[in-house]
Amino acid sequence: MGEGAKARYFIKxxxxxxxxxxCHKVVRSSNGEYDLEYETTMALGGLTxxxxxxxxxxxxxxxxxxxxxxxSLGNTIAFLIYLGGEKxxxxxxxxxxx
Length: 98
Ligand code: SF4
Prior knowledge:
The protein is α+β, with helices and mostly antiparallel strands. 47% of the residues lie in helices and 16% in strands. It is elongated and about 45 Å long.
C-alpha cells in the first residue's frame, strides 16, 4: 500500500488465525472496515486494472459479502478481459480498468 493510500485507508494490520505473516490490512471501506488481503489486491486490482483504492476495497468487500472467493473472482474477470479485449473471443467482456 502506497503512503497516500495508507494514510487515507489503513487502520491496522490483520492476520489469519496463528499466522505470523499478518499480511491483511484492515482498511476503511464505504461501509466501515474491511479486512483486505494482499492476494485480493493483486487479483481484483492489478489483474483487472482497478487501481482506485476505494473502488478496489468496496469491490472486494462486495465480493466477500456475495460469497465469492476474491482471488478466483479476480483471476476469472482478468481471463474474461483477456478473452474479450485481446482475443475478441467473448463479446461484451469487461475492459481492463473498467
Ligand atoms: S493470507 Fe496472509 S495472514 Fe492469512 S495465512 Fe496467508 S500470509 Fe498469513
